[in-house]
Amino acid sequence: MHCCRSCDYSAYNVLDDPQFWRGIKDYSNWPTIPQVYLHGEFVGGSDILRQMHQIGGLVEELKKLGVHSAL
Q1: What are the Glutaredoxin domain coordinates in residue numbering (predicted)?
Q2: C-beta atoms surrounding 43 within 10 Å
Q3: CATH no. for 14-64
Q4: Which one, out of 14, 23, 63, 70, has a CA that is 20 to 30 A from the CA of 40?
Q5: SS3 assignment, position 20
Q6: What is the enclosing helix (H) or strand (E) of 50?
Q7: CA geometry: angle at 56 spanning 51 and 33, to 5°?
Q8: Domain-by-domain residue ranges, the chain?
């Protein structure tokens, strides 16, 4: 991950916990993992993030959260 120096984030391997894996898919009403949440709000899976990145939307959403690229 290209990230700023003081970026707070967390990750959870849902494959280690089948109950969590099923629950997160029900919670988001999204059938696949990985799933990305920004400030607790579901954004989408990797396909959605790729599309957002390609059109510049991901950078804009991250900027709103105070995350700026280190590149």
Answers
A1: 8-43
A2: 17
A3: 3.40.30.10
A4: 70
A5: helix
A6: helix 46-55
A7: 35
A8: 14-64
The Cα 12–Cα 46 span in angstroms is: 15
pLDDT beyond 60 at 2: no
Sign for the CA dihedral angle at 21, 22, 23, 27 comes to positive
Q: Classify 35 as helix, strand or coil.
A: strand
Question: Alpha-carbon distance 71 to 47, whole Å?
Answer: 22
pLDDT (tens digit per residue) in 14-30: 889 999 989 999 999 99
Amino acid letter for position 66: G
pLDDT digits (tens, 9 = 90+) for 42-71: 999 999 999 999 998 998 898 888 887 765
Q: How far is CA 54 from CA 22, 42, 47, 48, 49, in A?
A: 30, 19, 11, 10, 9
H-type alpha helices, 1-71: 18-28, 46-55, 57-64
